[in-house]
Specification:
Blueprint: H1 5-16, H2 20-42, E1 48-53, H3 55-58, E2 67-75, H4 80-94, E3 99-101, E4 107-112, E5 115-124, H5 138-146, H6 151-166, H7 181-191, H8 194-202, E6 208-210, E7 226-230, E8 233-237, H9 244-259, H10 276-286, E9 289-298, H11 302-322, E10 327-335, E11 341-343, E12 378-387, E13 395-402, H12 406-416, E14 422-427, E15 430-436, H13 442-447, H14 458-466, E16 469-472, H15 480-491
Parallel strand pairs: 2-5, 6-7
Antiparallel strand pairs: 1-2, 3-4, 4-5, 7-8, 9-12, 9-16, 10-11, 10-12, 13-15, 14-15
Length: 495
């Protein structure tokens, strides 16, 4: 439904604001978690306190996104192994049906009455600049924002989170590389409202530098497109994980919202999955050659899996291009153990996990927050490459140095003079030869052991070494039963 900017934002605010019953339910869970944690700590021979952190304590959580982050703070003199041991002991007692996740150090995650709960151990330190682990700074973020946010700014933050989720740019996990909850809160705070932030973002010309506390010169050490200096730690860019694509996406839709305000910009849009026949029709219409490697990996969480998928995709893409096969676009897909799927497109990155990033922003540092499946389960993965040139002639041209560069020219000529190549001969001022190409088709390269000479993620290389299927052309349609939504998004991309 269209309307004025103010009207559309007001409706978004109403949808994003938790109802009183939802608030009471969450507050009850928070108190239960704290009570259980304090009871558990009392039975251990170490001192610790409990801190409720994140968006739920700052009143910036969006209706329906019920996450509770509770930290157990131990004395900084405690040995790391002891922190992990006691931290997990407290977590498992608070969440007996939960599971352990592993990042810089382990923590426990689970549910109480339908509310997601993380019970995270950390150190009690004097300042965020003195942290011993990445999560130690989180309580400082909470205190900083609690002192500065009023009800109006909190409401605007909820609207901004809903907007970022609607445009698939919300979440600091390494699958999404979007705006974290903490980054979103700082941006609204610095600009004194969502409307003002939208106006500013529409006119940004990256690199953009923001320093809420005026730490003089601190922003000079960062080269990301958006730099927001952490008010509690001037050595940290809160926007470090944000991709260039998601920053540009935010700018695009900020302009859309200002030019044509409408409710749909605040609503996540999921494409209808397409079937195998629709995939084949799309391929035929494009006249390209798509090639996909399909394989499975152990149940890695997203923050472990997606960087490896992207590294592998980039490495294979470069290798294809170097061999003369012209790459139009590439993508990666991964299915969760529960059947959920997610895409982290190279050109069009997306976020489809409603919980990702709706916290302090340290979930990119707590790997596993948004993972799917257990550690012993396997996840089906796809590396997709769409080629405009998938076959090359047997012969390729190889240019040597100019004849006038005596030593290099003589070395080149001697190296190839007795080879099976055509030449060397002189073309213009340099030696040239025409030699047999190692691979005349992209398929042949991807089926060969040469595939393992490119940069691959460690777990991806192990998985490919074990087994993979190579799908070419119309065979890509075989991916539709599992990745129909991802393929629909791929063949009908949007900003």
């Amino acid at each position: 439904m269209p309307g004025s900017f103010e009207t559309v934002v007001a409706r978004a605010h109403e949808r994003a604001t938790p109802a009183e019953a939802e608030r009471e339910r969450l507050e009850a869970v928070v108190q239960e978690v704290i009570d259980r944690a304090e009871h558990a700590i009392a039975s251990f021979p170490v001192a610790a306190d409990i801190v409720h952190v994140g968006s739920t304590v700052r009143n910036t959580w969006v209706a329906g996104d019920r996450d509770v982050d509770v930290f157990v703070r131990f004395d900084s003199a405690l040995d790391r192994a002891e922190l992990e041991r006691y931290g997990l002991a407290v977590g498992n007692e608070v969440l007996p049906d939960g599971r352990e996740e592993y990042a810089e150090h382990p923590y426990v995650t689970g549910e109480i009455e339908g509310v997601a709960v993380d019970l995270v151990p950390c150190y009690r330190v004097e300042s965020a600049a003195a942290i011993r682990s990445a999560v130690d700074r989180t309580p400082f973020h909470t205190e900083y924002l609690k002192r500065r946010l009023d009800d109006s700014l909190a409401a605007d933050i909820r609207v901004c989170k809903a907007f970022l989720a609607g445009i698939d740019a919300y979440g600091s996990d390494l699958r999404t590389r979007g705006f974290s909850g903490y980054l979103t809160e700082l941006l609204v705070l610095v600009h004194d409202g969502f409307g003002e932030l939208t106006e500013a973002a529409a006119n940004w010309s990256p690199p953009v530098r923001l320093d809420p506390e005026g730490h003089e010169g601190s922003e000079q050490g960062f080269d990301e497109p958006l730099v927001v200096i952490d008010p509690t730690d001037p050595n940290r860019n809160v926007a470090a994980v944000l991709s260039t694509t998601n920053l540009a996406r935010f700018q695009h839709y900020a302009r859309e919202l200002l030019a044509d305000p409408r409710d749909e910009l605040f609503e996540r849009r999921e494409p209808d999955p397409i079937d195998a026949e629709a995939v084949r029709e799309a391929i035929d219409a494009r006249g390209t050659t798509p090639i996909a490697l399909r394989f499975s990996v152990p149940g890695l969480v997203d923050d472990q899996l997606y960087p490896q998928l992207e590294k592998s995709s980039a490495g294979i893409g470069r290798a294809l291009s170097e061999r003369g096969f012209r790459l139009l676009r590439r993508d990666v897909f991964a299915a969760g153990a529960d059947g959920d799927t997610g895409s982290a497109e190279t050109e069009i990155e997306t976020s489809r996990n409603g919980r990702s990033g709706d916290g302090d922003g340290e979930r990119d540092e707590r790997s596993g927050r948004n993972g799917h499946g257990g550690r012993n389960e396997r996840r089906e993965c796809v590396l997709l490459f769409e080629l405009t040139v998938a076959e090359r002639p047997r012969i390729e041209r190889h240019e040597g140095p100019p004849v006038s560069v005596r030593e290099h020219a003589r070395s080149f000529y001697r190296t190839y003079a007795e080879s099976d190549a055509y030449g060397p001969f002189i073309d213009g001022d340099r030696y040239v030869l025409e030699r047999a190409r190692e691979f005349t088709s992209a398929r042949a390269f991807l089926e060969s052991d040469a595939l393992f000479g490119v940069a691959l993620g460690a777990d991806i290389e192990t998985a490919l070494n074990a087994e993979y299927d190579l799908l070419v052309g119309d065979d890509i349609g075989d991916l539709a039963p599992t990745f129909g939504a991802e393929l629909a998004r791929y063949f009908a991309p949007r900003p």
